[in-house]
Amino acid sequence: MHRKRTLLFGTAVAVAAGVAAGCGGGTNGSQSEAASTSGNPQSSSPAKTITVKETEFKLTPSTVSVAKTGTYAIKVVNTGSITHALEVEGNGVEEKSGDVGAGSSTTFTVALKSSGKYEMYCPIDGHRKQGMEGTITVGSAAGGGMRTGTSTTQTNTGGGGYGGY
């Protein structure tokens, strides 16, 4: 009888370990699902990386153009001496970087789902009015402007996405 219980217990532990291993894969699947619902169903990786430098009180570049819709990584580099942030807004999109301290950088993703113009600006009190604003143009209207490099790295946004527009 004792031997049957030991065998049953061992089997239960093996099944639980298998289920736990399966759940671990589910976490990555959830991250991919979240990324794919933010505008790029083919891949959870951003199509390109756009780098924006912030200082007192301007964005460089202040205008960015991309040829097509998709999920983009926005790398925010604070080259100034005070805290800044970056927000991208328009066409049903509103994504923020969070605060970026002086000399620091962060990367967040944004799904630019529609052709047209999106605003980008520093949402910290008064910074936008002092000149920390610009635009991202997506699609045929993008024509010239800044060209962005390709990126094959996946960015962990830590949530913060807005799904279901």
Keywords:
165 residues; alpha+beta; Immunoglobulin-like; 2 domains; 5-stranded mixed beta sheet; 21% helix; disordered N terminus; disordered C terminus
Succession of helices and strands: HEEEEEEEEEE
Portion of residues within helices: 10-25%
- CATH architecture field of the largest domain: Sandwich
**Number of DSSP strands?**
10
Number of domain modules:
2
Tell the overall outline: globular
From the N-terminal CA to the C-terminal CA, the straight-line distance is 60 Å
- CATH class designation of the largest domain: Mainly Beta
Largest sheet: 5 strands, mixed
The total count of helices amounts to 1
Unreliably modeled segments? 2-43, 142-165
- Strand percent estimate: 25-35%
Average pLDDT over all residues: 71
In the CATH hierarchy, the third-tier topology of the largest domain is known as: Immunoglobulin-like
Q: SS-based structural class?
A: alpha+beta
Radius of gyration: 22 Å
Topology:
Layout: H1 2-36, E1 48-55, E2 58-60, E3 63-66, E4 70-78, E5 87-90, E6 93-96, E7 105-112, E8 116-121, E9 133-138, E10 149-150
